[in-house]
Backbone:
């Protein structure tokens, strides 16, 4: 895990992060060229192009091997599976949905050869 900083060079990016327990507070901003945003160490964060043209951002990390944790893959793709009753209660969803998600094949985004902007990653 590492901290990350991005500088938008082109386009419009919606970026943010969520603080840890107990607050789970969202800090987010719409970024335009020249804007800079810092993602603190170890927090769930995101970046999304919300413009009508491609976006370009320069990203820097404080580690040459920052690692990655994809939340859905980790939680629903665990081997052995996490108890579905526990996940249903934690996410306030039906146990049947948890079971379906646990049966899905979870792709490791780092295994993808190229980024597909239409994918859910």
Residues:
């Amino acid at each position: 895990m590492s901290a990350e900083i991005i500088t938008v060079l082109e386009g419009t990016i919606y970026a943010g992060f969520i603080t840890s327990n107990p607050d789970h507070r969202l800090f987010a901003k719409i970024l335009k060229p020249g804007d800079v945003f810092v993602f603190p160490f170890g927090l769930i964060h995101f970046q999304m192009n919300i413009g009508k043209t491609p976006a370009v951002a320069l990203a820097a990390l404080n580690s040459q091997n920052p690692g990655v944790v994809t939340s859905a893959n980790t939680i629903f793709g665990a081997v052995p599976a996490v108890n579905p009753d526990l996940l249903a209660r934690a996410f306030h969803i039906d146990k049947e949905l948890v079971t379906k998600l646990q049966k899905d094949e979870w792709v490791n985004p780092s295994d993808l050869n190229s980024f597909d902007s239409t994918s859910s990653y």
